[in-house]
Amino acid sequence: MHHSGTWPDSTGSPRPKNATSSGSCDWQSPRCAGHSNPTASTSAPTSARSPAPAWSATSTCTSSRAGRAIPTSSPCSAKPKSSANTSKAPTTASPPPSAGRTAPCAAVVKAVVFDLDNTLVNFTKFKSVSVEAAIQAMIDAGLDMTPEQARQRIFQIYDTRGIEYQEVFDDFLRDVLGYVDYRILANGIIAYRRAREGVLVSYPHVNMALLKLARMGLRLAVVSDAPRLQAWMRLVQLGVDGFFDAVVTFDDTGRRKPAPEPFQKALELLGITAAECVMVGDWAERDIVGAREIGMHTVFARYGDAFGTKHSGADFEIDDVLELIPVIERLNRA
Question: In what ranges is there compositional bias, type Polar residues (predicted)?
Fold first, then answer.
């Protein structure tokens, strides 16, 4: 596993793109505390909004989420990147819509929808470090195999059962021992959870960007292929759950991106149209393709790209989540 992407100046302008993507993988979430099948609402609580000063040709409003008052202020203005680097220089022309999708019509952007893993949280690093910690703890508890052998077996199970599979260490021990040694299992689970606490963090500037977007009066949502409980646990641990008006997970539609249902569910909960919404994600073949097909504006989070994607097919690309602010400003000026 590897994590690619760079961290340029956070005030740089985004780059429009108009090609297609490549790469495939399914990174979502590991075993975590609790195995219940929660039935909590897919929508986070939303408080009343009050009018705020206009910042562009269209009016916005302040918002208060989960009892957290969010004052109104002007959005940040991003500076264009240096023209010396022509490969990253912004262009003024919008890319033509891809075949078979509905082109977004002119409309004020009213909401932003985020993917979760590798867009808000560095899931690739979190997953790798946590599994390594669990493997070492199980070996220290008496498991007789090398770390590399254990790693291969564990990820074979993830490949078969899904990266969110909650019984991965149980199956692993049955596979290598013929039974579950609960002492070894307990050591692995505890080590995994301890490592997770230390490495499950948001990308730089995520909190700042969410705050700025909320101050602009935008409604915010998450669309994730993760199970409901795991998605909410990550949002809560990151301390950003209060920003979101809606959280749509695999449990809510039974479909994974790029199927239209998860995106449509988010639009329904937000009460907006596709042309009024921006989708931000790191996985071109799921986040970008699915959102473009139903007419949403698309932003590729290159900072979270784990596949070395050359052509995302997104309307814009960003190397830092704060670059999303001038994207919204540009769309609202168009």
Answer: 7-27
Q: What angle do CA 309, 311, 316 make, to 5 degrees?
A: 105
CA distance 247 to 119: 14
Q: Are 255 and 284 in contact (CB under 8 A)?
A: no
Q: What is the predicted pLDDT for the residue at 164?
A: 86
Positions in the chain whose pLDDT score sits under 50: 1-102, 106
Residue 54: its pLDDT value, please? 36
Q: How far apart are CA 278 and CA 89, in angstroms?
A: 22
Q: How many residues does the chain have?
A: 334
Task: Give the pLDDT score at 107.
Answer: 56
Q: What is the pTM of this model?
A: 0.68
Inter-residue contact 102 to 294 (CB < 8 Å)? yes
Residue with tokens 């692993």: 172
- Residue 240's pLDDT is 97
* C-alpha span between 20 and 24 (Å, rounded): 13
Q: CA angle at residue 332 from 92 to 49, to 5 degrees?
A: 160
d(CA 57, CA 108) in angstroms, rounded, equals: 9
Separation of alpha carbons 66 and 87, rounded Å: 42
Q: What is the DSSP string of 294-316?
A: TT-EEEEEGGG-SS--S----SE
- Edge-to-edge strands, sheet with 277-281: 246-248, 219-223, 111-114, 277-281, 297-301, 316-318
Tokens standing for 173?
A: 């021990």
Comparing CA positions, the residue from 209, 278, 231 lying closest to residue 34 is 231
pLDDT for res 263: 98
**Tokens for 54?**
């206009």
Distance CA 254, CA 250 (A): 5
DSSP 259: S
CA nearest 150: which of 176, 170, 126?
176
Domains and CATH numbers, the chain: 63-122+202-333 (3.40.50.1000), 124-199 (1.10.150.520)
